[in-house]
Write a structure and sequence with these properties.
single chain, Arc Repressor Mutant, subunit A, D-Maltodextrin-Binding Protein, domain 2, two-stranded antiparallel ribbon, 41% helix
């Protein structure tokens, strides 16, 4: 039976055309090497070398065998490379979920840098609302997510990328539109457009708690699952809203964004299941944190 060591012996002799030098490279003595080559020739039923006292040459069969075994060793090297890279997160596949607001700040830079650093990772992106993303991460349908930190992290690991303040978004002609900054208490009589608590409980609670700490509970007139939809509805004059600072990137002509006095903060994090052993998860999480340090906008510094 032909073993890998027989092929290694054969290729070393073929490349040196000298049994003594080949034996030295292989760290064995010459007689066992000679016997192993003879056993290989017997197994193949073909002479691989023409031997004389002065020289060793490959036969036609030996040249063909050398060419064919080259492919075997290339395949072995690929296999070795794949094992190393897949175990270190340098190759493989990665399913990434993201909430839409991250597309206005961190997501484009992270995916661009990660794809450049790990070109052998097959990365697939899917847009989610926060609560469904957390559920799919827990269920193993998604490897990693960029999202607001979930209410229940008991089955999840996380790495905070950044925290961002909430801003007030107002219709363009709102009475407070000309002020440089406002207190949320000044919106006590306004109707609010909000994300439902079932979709993003952490953000919903931060908004309600901030209003209550300023003396009122917000009158929620409309609810929408996506932050950009909320901003659009505000622009249509259907209420006011508190949204993450990143939503300023929408640049709508119908709305104005105003800093809040003592603005509450929301954390954006990389989230993954504690039981997920995909090594690409950690390389993605580390890339997200590192990229944000380099590219974060001045408003976050």
């Amino acid at each position: 039976m032909i073993e890998l060591r027989h092929l290694t012996y054969f290729r070393t002799v073929a490349e040196t055309l000298h049994f003594g030098r080949a034996a030295a490279l292989l760290h064995i003595s010459q007689p066992p090497l000679t016997r192993q080559i003879a056993a290989l020739e017997k197994e193949l039923g073909a002479q691989l070398f023409d031997r004389s006292k002065r020289s060793v040459q490959l036969t036609a069969a030996g040249k063909n065998f050398y060419r064919d075994t080259t492919e075997i060793f290339k395949a072995l090297e690929r296999a070795r490379h794949n094992v190393i890279t897949s175990s270190t997160g340098k190759s493989g596949s990665l399913k990434v979920g993201f909430m839409m607001s991250s597309a206005y700040n961190i997501l484009p830079s992270v995916t661009r840098h990660y794809s450049a650093a790990f070109p052998e990772v097959d990365m697939r992106l899917s847009e989610y609302v926060p609560n469904l993303l957390a559920t799919d991460i827990e269920d193993g349908k998604v490897d990693v997510g960029i999202m607001y930190r979930p209410e229940d992290c008991s089955r999840l690991d996380s790495l905070t990328i950044f925290s961002e303040p909430l801003l007030a978004v107002l219709p363009k002609y709102h009475p407070l539109a000309g002020k440089p900054a406002i207190s949320v208490a000044e919106l006590a009589e306004d109707s609010f457009v909000s994300i439902p608590r079932t979709i993003a409980p952490v953000v919903f609670d931060i908004i309600v708690n901030h209003c209550q700490s300023n003396g009122f509970r917000p009158r929620i007139k409309l609810e929408a699952n996506l932050q950009q939809t909320i901003v659009n509805l505000v622009g249509e004059g259907l209420g006011v809203a508190l949204v993450p600072a990143s939503m300023q990137a929408m640049h709508l002509d119908t709305t104005v964004f105003k800093p809040l006095i003592k603005a509450p903060m929301v954390e954006v994090a990389v989230i993954w299941n504690k039981e997920n052993r995909n090594p690409c998860v950690r390389t993605f999480a580390d890339t997200a944190v590192e990229v944000w340090r380099k590219v974060k906008p001045a408003a976050y510094k």
